[in-house]
Amino acid sequence: MIELALISVLVMIGAALAVVFVRGLMAAVAAAAVVSLALSVLFAVLRAPDVALAEAAVGAGLSGVLLALTLRRVGLWPGSPSGDGDRE
Amino acid sequence: MTDAMLLAEALGDVLYTGAIGLILLGLYAMVVPRHLVRIVLGLLLVQSGVNLFLVAVGYRPEAAAPILLGGQAIGPVVDPLPQALVLTAIVIGVGVLALALALVVRVKDVHGTLDSREVAERMAAETGDSRLMPETAPGRGAAVPAREMLEDRS
Amino acid sequence: MKGYGRAVAATIFLIGLGTLLAALFAALPFGQAPMQVGQATAVVALPETGATNIVSAILLAYRGLDTLGEVTILFVAATAAGMVLSGAGRGEAQGAPAGFILRVASGLLFPFLLALGAFIVVHGHLTPGGGFQGGAILAAAFFIPLLANPASPLNHTVAMVIEGVSGAAFIAIGAAALFGGEAFLTPLFGTGTPGELFSAGSLPLLYLAVGLKVGSELAGLMARVAGEGGRA
User: Fold this and answer.
1) Per-residue confidence band for B23, with pLDDT thresholds at 50, 70 and 90
2) Considering the domain boundaries, does residue C145 fall inside one?
């Protein structure tokens, strides 16, 4: 169990580093979803199945979709009609 | 000090380190980058870190999850109160995120850019209110690196 | 080098903050809950409410007013987001229709997602899950077809009616307790047999209201951010 927690924390911190430092915003949004997924594994390890379910459904699912839709709307989506790629 | 206690200690260290790491990275993302979407992502990270910390506080080693399907609790359960609080926080977080993203879309529509400094400069220029002007290094003026001009082409 | 001043200052500040947090957390013994409220609640929750999921019992019975406030916050946030976006141009948001695989899969997935969401909502008082998690899945069920086929917009009127009715139902169930001389949002109808679907009194009804409200709100919210006009 401690191994699972350790791996999840490592994945989570790595993904969080990617959220902050990666160049493309689309990649940052994807990394944010990975953070949420690792976090929901940690919640399950901590015996909080309700919270794990909420984090997986809301954090990894809905938040990621909302962020991606926003990127598409403001033209930062790679390959959107008048978009300029997803670089900042 | 038994093996189980040492294991619990190690688990606590790992979890607290993760929570602190998330909070610090999120704060960095809110302060240093100037892109508004990156700032919103930082908010998300700080929130996740605080949630992890709260649930970790309620953990008890060798306790069951707070679901008593067997009828009665067979031994201790983990603290259900922080879990209920975090559940609330996660759902409210999505509302906050949606509102922030709606504002991002609106800023893009009105000002045509998502660079927070550039938005502030434009607002200062439009309203004539010098207090809105971000402090720029002398000689640097409103010049922005070419990288950040990219999204103005549309 | 001037551009890096901000990053350096932020890094120094964050190192300090990290040290402070680490010192604070080190003083907090891991594995020993600092408060007794949770343990006391865990003991009395099942006999008092009949819900086997203690987290649900806390959310709906012991902190029901809190949940009402939470749903209100979500409603206000969704309304504000809708207001902010209503004046925004439709812009380029409308993409081409999705590919064959997404179109077919969204049609196939819809009933299963609906069933899964409904299951998680109505079993919220028994197993992990409940109105918020199930509501999110319900919202996804209605949003995926929208992604696959942008030409068929979400019916915002229906979503708003569902949202309003379920929100009113939550308050009505809470107010019904007032007639029995109890406090607002006191669970009704006794506890029933713990572990059965129809148990825990009015808690499943409250969770159903929360699930419908959250689901319709989130679906409408995503549709708005996606930038489709919809039939207002």
Assistant:
1) very high
2) yes
Q: Is A46 on the interface with C (CB under 8 A)?
A: no
Q: Which residues pair with B67 in a beta bridge?
A: C53
Q: What is the pLDDT of residue C95?
A: 55
Chain-chain contact of C129 with A50 (C-beta, under 8 angstroms): yes
Q: Which helix (H) or strand (E) holds C26?
A: helix C5-26
The residue with tokens 């990053």 is C7
Q: Is the pLDDT of residue A47 over 80?
A: yes
List the domain range (segments joined by +) for residue C191: 33-226
d(CA A60, CA A41): 12
Measured between CB atoms, does C36 come within 8 Å of chain B?
A: no
Domain ranges in chain A? 2-73
* Cβ contact, residue pair C140, A61, below 8 Å: yes
Is the minimum CB–CB distance between A54 and chain C shorter than 8 Å? yes
User: Does residue C31 carry a pLDDT above 70?
Assistant: yes
Closest-CA distance of chain B to residue A77, Å: 11
* Interval A73-88 mean pLDDT: 58
Neighbours of chain C (3+ CB pairs under 8 A): A, B
Residues in chain A within 8 Å Cβ distance of C227: 69, 72-73
CA distance C97 to C103: 9
> What is the reported pLDDT for B52?
92
A16 touches chain B (CB under 8 A): yes
Between C164 and C195, whose confidence is greater? C164
Q: Does residue B6 sit at the A interface (CB-CB below 8 Å)?
A: no
Secondary structure of residue B35 in the 3-state scheme: strand
Return the DSSP state at C127: S
Which of chain C's residues have a Cβ under 8 Å away from the Cβ of A1?
none
ipTM given for this complex:
0.85
Structural domains of chain C, count? 1
Question: ∠ CA(B65), CA(B70), CA(B72), 5° rounding?
Answer: 80
Write down all domains in chain B, each with its CATH number in brackets: 3-64+77-136 (1.10.287.3510)
On whether residue C24 sits in a domain, the answer given is: no
Torsion over CA of A8, A11, A15 and A17, rounded to 10 degrees?
Answer: 110
Residue A52 at interface with chain B, using a CB cutoff of 8 Å: no
User: CB pairs below 8 Å between A and C: how many?
Assistant: 59
Q: What predicted TM-score, i.e. pTM, was given to this entire model?
A: 0.84
